[in-house]
Design a protein that fits this description.
Blueprint (H helix, E strand, L loop, with lengths): L1 E6 L3 E7 L5 E8 L5 H16 L9 E5 L2 E2 L6 E2 L11 H9 L3 E5 H12 L7 E7 L3 E7 L2 E3 L35 H4 L2 H12 L5 H9 L3 H9 L1
Parallel strand pairs: 1-4, 4-7
Antiparallel strand pairs: 1-2, 2-3, 5-6, 8-9, 9-10
Helix pairs in contact: 1-2, 5-7, 6-7
Amino acid sequence: MRIGVDLGGTKIEALALADDGAEIIRRRVLTPQGDYHAIVVAIRDLVAAVQDGRSGPGTPVGVTIPGALSPATGLIKNANSTCLIGKPFDVDLAAALECPVRLANDANCFALSEASDGAGRGADSVFGVIVGTGTGAGLVLGGRLHEGTNLIAGEWGHVPLPWPEDDERPGPPCYCGRRGCIETFLSGPGLSLDYKTMTGGTLNADEIAALAGLGDAGAAACMARY
């Protein structure tokens, strides 16, 4: 059996696969916000739930994260779940799970999967985009993942918004320390912030999209800008 965990800014999902790739069980919980220890505990409990006697102790676990494990320090960097930054996440998870843990960037895994046997199969180059709590992407060139020296190749979420309008400068502040990154506009929280700025209301991305579908003028204008 193989076990994988996807850690996102909004949810954590764990999946167990049989050796032939068939799905055995899947579980999901909300991501604890801003609490590093609680995230470790949540993943530990999720993995226990999908294992539930189906595999022996010590089964390796793969975890995708919204960031990267620095090869220089062994600590997490470039994570929009900022409580992970500067932490030895793989070491702490391995201790909590009592098994080997492999970490990888979520967008890189997505892009590689699509290039291997999905929408990008057979293409010379694949640019796989994830838009959710953050805005990330992975690059696959010639069938191989291209991460770059600093493990951030393809991370277009932290380039400036191109051709900004006057009212889009300097742009919302980003956790990376800059302003106006694409991620601050093109993400779930970015959509919510735009809606709040323009209408004063507080809704999540799903609610804004649903309201726009019902003909609400403010939500429809927000979706058009998005």
